[in-house]
Write a structure and sequence with these properties.
By secondary structure, the chain is mostly helical. Helix content is 79%, strand content 0%. The chain contains nine helices and no strands.
Length: 242
């Protein structure tokens, strides 16, 4: 998902900056909207699935192989992607059904829905309200699952008799919570407001965060739980000191 997000945005952005030919076709713009919305929407639900996975691992460890078997994992992952694709098809169909006249200069480094709506010469207020309602559901529903899962995990950790067990449970959840904070922080700020309530500069700043910075940090955040990665990282730091 991180590779798809960055691969959709960064190469075209870099080519525009380096060549000076800041142009994108209608098809290329629609492709960017489709992939960014698909990955963004799917990730909200996958983060909720991961929270449920950690809840089962900590609160029901003996039943984990049954509750989180291969079939269940594939089904939840597939459902998350299908929600993202469905959401994206609706967005692309609606955004490119509006008439665009006058200046077609996109004040952004990629085609993002709120920025495109500003270029339309039609009344998009109803669609903006639809986007707002959709984002409330798409973000708050998975967030509710995440909060409920971690509330149960916290109660289980408090009741654990051993310190080692508590540390292991918290380590299992720490990387996921970090990613949830990064991803939902940018998403809540960017999409829980109407496009008319934000400036183009705010859109660019927040979009940079969730399309470039967060996907770049995610592999590092998850891999730092791996002891071999930590040992290799310390070895590199030791070499630099020498």
């Amino acid at each position: 998902m991180d590779l798809t997000m960055m691969g959709t945005v960064v190469p075209k952005m870099a080519a525009n900056f380096l060549s000076g030919n800041k142009f994108i076709s209608r098809g290329g713009c629609a492709t960017q909207v489709f992939l960014v919305v698909t990955v963004g929407s799917a990730e909200y639900f996958l983060l909720a699935v991961m929270a449920y996975d950690r809840y089962v691992a900590v609160c029901h460890p003996l039943r984990y192989p049954v509750l989180m078997n291969w079939k269940a994992c594939c089904l939840m992952a597939f459902a998350s992607w299908m929600v993202g694709v469905t959401d994206s098809v609706i967005y692309v169909g609606m955004v490119f059904s509006f008439p665009y006249c006058g200046s077609l200069q996109v004040d952004h480094f990629f085609c993002e829905v709120p920025t495109l709506l500003r270029l339309s010469c039609a009344d998009t207020s109803l669609f903006q309200d639809l986007i707002y309602a959709c984002c409330v559901v798409m973000m708050l529903l998975p967030l509710g699952v995440i909060v409920a899962s971690y509330a149960r995990i916290l109660m289980a950790v408090i009741n654990m008799p051993s310190t080692e067990g508590k540390q292991k449970a918290l380590t299992t959840c720490s990387s996921h919570l970090t990613v949830v904070g990064l991803y939902y922080g940018g998403g809540l700020f960017n999409y829980m407001q109407k496009a008319s309530a934000r400036t183009a500069a705010e859109d660019r700043a927040i979009s940079t965060f969730y399309t470039i910075i967060a996907p770049m940090l995610n592999p590092l955040i998850y891999s730092l739980r791996n002891r071999e990665v930590i040992r290799a990282f310390k070895k590199v730091l030791g070499t630099w000191r020498v």
